[in-house]
Amino acid sequence: MKLPPSIVVGPHTYSVTTDGISDDLVGDTDCTQLIIRVRAGLPESVTAEVLIHECLHALWDGTPLRCMDSEVEESVVSALAPGLLELLRRNPKLLAVLVP
Asked: Using 50, 70 and 90 to split pLDDT, how confident is the model at 55?
């Protein structure tokens, strides 16, 4: 799967890269440097889920929720990412309505 070079989240443009990711992670988001990293070589379905997961972290950072504990953030993002991905995949007409 070819990743987009950037993703706009709120007023910010995040660079998307496979470089510089920790060996123990499949993805991470640096909201200070505006970088989303996704491990290269993952299966397509995993890459898509990781990318949605990291986008949710970027969204979270732009809300008052960012003041919550990081463990709560990770739990919520991890719970929502697979369902959001599946919702978008199974409902292409929904995406067409949301993005005319």
From this structure: very high
Q: How far apart are CA 100 and CA 98, in angstroms?
A: 6
Angle between helices 70-90 and 44-61 (to 10 degrees): 130
Per-residue pLDDT at 44 exceeds 90 = yes
Is the overall model pTM greater than 0.70, yes or no? yes
Contacts 24+ apart (CB under 8 A), 35-41: 36/7, 38/3
What is the CATH number for 63? Answer: 1.10.10
Task: Assess if residue 75 is contained within a domain.
Answer: yes
pLDDT of residue 67 exceeding 90: no
Q: What is the DSSP letter of 2?
A: P
Looking at the 3D structure of the chain, how many domains does it have? 1
Please report whether residue 1 resides in a domain. no
**Domain carrying residue 94:** 6-98
Sign of CA dihedral 57, 58, 63, 68: positive
